[in-house]
Each structure stands twice: as C-alpha cells, then as structure tokens.
Amino acid sequence: MQETPRNTGRRTGSARRRILDAAARRFYADGIAATGIDTVTAEAGVAKMSLYNNFASKSALVEAVLEARHTEWLALYARRSRRAADPITRVLAVFDAYADQAALVVDGFRGCGLLNAAGELPAGDAAREVVRRHEEEVEGILAAGLRELTERSRADRLATHLSLLVEGAMVRSGLRGDRARLRDARNIAVDLLTAL
C-alpha cells in the first residue's frame, strides 16, 4: 500500500479509509502481530470504537487490508495490461505491476505485503485465504496470456514457473530491502518468453 505521511491530527476522508490506510502502513512496516489496535487507531486519528464500528475484529481488519492490497495490485496490472501491445508484454505486465506496487513503498521496502502477512497468519485464517486467492488469480492471468503464445499445457506449466519466479523475487527483494530482484525476475521472464 502506498505510504502516506503519519497522522497530523487533521481528519480527512472517512474513518474506515483512515483506519485501513493506517493499518496497511503499520502491518507492512511492523508486522501484524506486532501492531496493536491502539497503534492503528492512534495513527488513523480515530477512537477505538470507530475501528470496531467498521471492523468486527482485528482479524476482519487484517482481511480488509489484504483485500485492498490485492485490489490495488489488480488495478496496477490492469493499467499495465491495457497498454500492452502484444501477448508477451501482457505477461510481463504482471512483473511490472509488482514493481509498480513495490515503488509505492516510500520507506522500508520489505517485499510483498501479502506474502509477509501470510507468513504471520495461521493455516485456515480467512485473511490467509485472501493471499491464496491472489496467488491463484495471478497465476491465472499469466496462464491466460501464455495461452496466446503456446499450447495450453505448456502455457499452464510456464505460468506456474513464472508465478514462482515473481513470488521468489518479491521475497528476495524484501529480504534485501531493494527492488533489484524484481528487475532480475522480469529479465529472466523475458528470456523464457522469447524462447517460446
């Protein structure tokens, strides 16, 4: 999610939006477990009751933050995909959308917020399901683009490979605190796609 200045005491936007934005910043920067509701409400400039009027629990807030992050990525991908002139560029738009989302982080790049969250959440958690659906949708987007370039079974296998490549690049980039591995992954994808 995009970094914005810390709360200055001015109330702008809906309480729900302020809570989501504050939670997204804190969960990404500090982790879900390390971020208490008091921290979120203080940064959002709202009362704790306002948070619970908008979200049934911290778990519901986490799920909403991850849904928003997924929606943000889809919008970044859609913008890149609309400008793509050919199937290869549409497939590469997946990598570009991850790089665009990473560029929204002003300070303290830590990799993919969805994957980071999944690492903190127990199996079966509803918010973890959001991450699983995101990964499936990304792989489906890759497969659809690749089917324009090669036969279905080969496209589906390559979609799995590219999905693992981009996820691994996000993890490695997050560990290093830079986006270089995203560029490397895109270059590897170009090599694989031009060999089709």
Automatic annotation (TrEMBL):
PROSITE patterns: HTH_TETR_2. The keyword Transmembrane helix does not apply. One of its GO terms (molecular function) is DNA binding. Keywords: DNA-binding, Transcription, Transcription regulation. Residues 13-73 form the HTH tetR-type domain. Gene3D superfamilies: Tetracycline Repressor, domain 2. The keyword Ribonucleoprotein does not apply. Residues 36-55 bind DNA. InterPro entries: Homeodomain-like_sf (IPR009057), HTH_TetR (IPR001647), Tet_transcr_reg_TetR-rel_C_sf (IPR036271). PANTHER family: HTH-TYPE TRANSCRIPTIONAL REGULATOR YJDC, TRANSCRIPTIONAL REGULATORY PROTEIN. This is TetR/AcrR family transcriptional regulator.
